[in-house]
What we know:
The chain is mostly beta strands. It contains one helix and eight strands; from the N terminus they run αββββββββ. The strands form two sheets. The chain has a four-stranded mixed beta sheet with strand order 1-3-6-5. Strands 2-8-7-4 form a four-stranded mixed beta sheet, with no helix packed on it. It is globular.
Amino acid sequence: MRILLVAIALSLLLSGCITGDDxxxxxxxxxxxxNGDAGGTFEVNExxxxxxxxxxxxxxxxxxxxxxxxxxxLTYTGSEYEPDEGDAxxxxxxxxxxxxxxxxxxxxxxxxxxxxxxxxxxxxxxxxVTIDVTSS
Length: 136
């Protein structure tokens, strides 16, 4: 029974019926970062929305999660997953993690791709950028 429930949940996730936490309410982000931006420094205004889009495949049990964040400067606002086009079983997609520039300052934004129930020993990838938030 448990396996059946997991299979149904994964099927719904891949079909887009389950997207995880809500994103920033549907507004376009002020800054969109991808894998190619790793290691960079980016400037945004206070109040701006930042979205990090990274390849992901939840059927493997892995997901991107916040590893390090300066909450006085950046606020994590949610995550959503969008599967790639097609209907292949086990295909990947894109995970979008959203953040709000809360206050002026500099923040390190570090993410990890892992299986949360296995702990840090399961970390497969890391992603880090620096965000400079200026007064608007």
